[in-house]
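Researcher: We plan to redesign the surface later, but first we want a full-length starting point. Tokens attached.
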């Protein structure tokens, strides 16, 4: 899912963060939240990359390039720099501790190590109304740029590369095994269904359909921490399709 802007920026300074989740057992559905890594200083820029794979068969006698065949999209990538500074003290985590938190997001979580499929946390970049895809940290590069007289790092620049986790395409035939939710959003303080629908589908009016498939009777009383299933847009197009999605959501949650 690309980073999208859904509404005017708030006057209150909002710090960007990387939300860490337990690896999901279902494609496209992350596990429980396990923490966040906050940006001490908000980034100046983000780099998003989306590429497609094409294949062409070379022909020795051809006088022009052979036709290419589309092979499908490749994982989306996001690159961002995180700046950490402890020159003023002020308490909180040290620069080294902040960097180690990033490094630790590249190793398997304790819960996943207990199972058969150890995995590093799933990660999502969030900054106010900017929300990126669910992925994993591909690499972290830390550069310490300032030290105290005793050799303690006081400033660092970390380059963090995230890569999208592929989702399993939704099944359109309800008898073929059931629909898969396109994404899951965890309600946070201040969230509204209209804002969630706009961010996910580009249409705030779809909040009613989102409420319908999730069995939300009172959209004005969203409980922080609750998971909201966000199917593909075409799965919200009619009552019959929404009924199938509602049944699948009930099955997954139950």
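Model: Full-length starting sequence:
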């Amino acid at each position: 899912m690309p980073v999208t802007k859904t509404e005017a920026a708030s006057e209150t300074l909002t710090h960007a963060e990387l939300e860490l989740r337990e690896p999901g057992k279902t494609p496209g559905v992350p596990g429980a939240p396990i923490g966040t890594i906050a940006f001490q200083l908000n980034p100046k820029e983000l780099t998003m990359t989306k590429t497609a794979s094409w294949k062409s068969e070379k022909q020795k006698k051809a006088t022009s390039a052979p036709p290419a065949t589309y092979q499908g999209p490749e994982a989306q990538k996001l690159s961002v720099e995180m700046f950490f500074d402890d020159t003023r003290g002020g308490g909180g985590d040290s620069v080294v501790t902040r960097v180690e938190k990033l490094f630790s997001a590249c190793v398997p979580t304790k819960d996943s190590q207990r199972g058969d499929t150890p995995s590093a946390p799933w990660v999502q970049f969030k900054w106010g109304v900017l929300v990126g895809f669910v992925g994993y940290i591909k690499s972290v590069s830390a550069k310490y740029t300032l030290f105290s007289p005793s050799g303690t790092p006081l400033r660092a620049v970390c380059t963090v590369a995230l890569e999208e986790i592929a989702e399993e395409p939704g099944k359109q035939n309800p008898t073929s095994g059931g629909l898969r939710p396109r994404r899951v959003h965890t309600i946070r303080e201040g969230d509204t269904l209209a804002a969630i629908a706009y961010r996910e589908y580009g249409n705030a009016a779809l909040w009613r359909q989102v409420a319908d498939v999730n069995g939300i009777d009172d959209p004005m009383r969203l409980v922080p921490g609750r998971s909201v299933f966000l199917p593909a847009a075409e799965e919200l197009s009619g009552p019959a399709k929404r009924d199938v999605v509602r049944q699948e959501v009930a099955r997954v949650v139950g």
